[in-house]
User: What shape does this take?
Amino acid sequence: MSGPFATATEFCEYTGLPVPSDLARLQFMLAAASAEIRGFTGQMLSEVVGDVVVLGACQRDTLLLPERPVTAITLLTVSGTPYTDYRFTRPGLIKQGATESTVEGTFWSYGATVTYNHGYTETSDAFAHLRQISIDVAARAFTLNERSASEAMGSTLMESAGYSPEIFLTQGEKWKLMDLGQVLVG
Assistant: This one.
């Protein structure tokens, strides 16, 4: 799923604002806020089941999956043959050898094709943090243009007067994203 981390209803419940007459505008801002978070982290973050990635050959004993957190690997093949002698971590590292006692130095000289699950479920605490940050980001742009527009431009919305809403992450929000487990920023 690559949709917004929050719905318009969740936005209104969190901010206490009534459901706006221009619902499409609010939904667009929530989608833009979620895209800003994904852009900063370089990650999808929402739960994805059964993602397939082909990792090239390397002369290291560790492969790195592109999306984090990794919640499961359902199939790993090397040269088309299922391979089971590995272990993985939530930050996306795959090491050869199913146990820590495996001798280091075995290389992934043929690469691997990996089918795996990654991201946060919508019921997780981490996803709740993503939802809150996306609402905060969208609220800045939405309420600035709804409330301040009347003072600055009469009843004309700021974007109608040539000012577009700004979607951005504050430094504090960036720190929160980095604190979600150091598996977010890729």
The radius of gyration is 21 Å. The first helix runs from residue 8 to 15. The first strand starts at residue 48 and ends at 55.
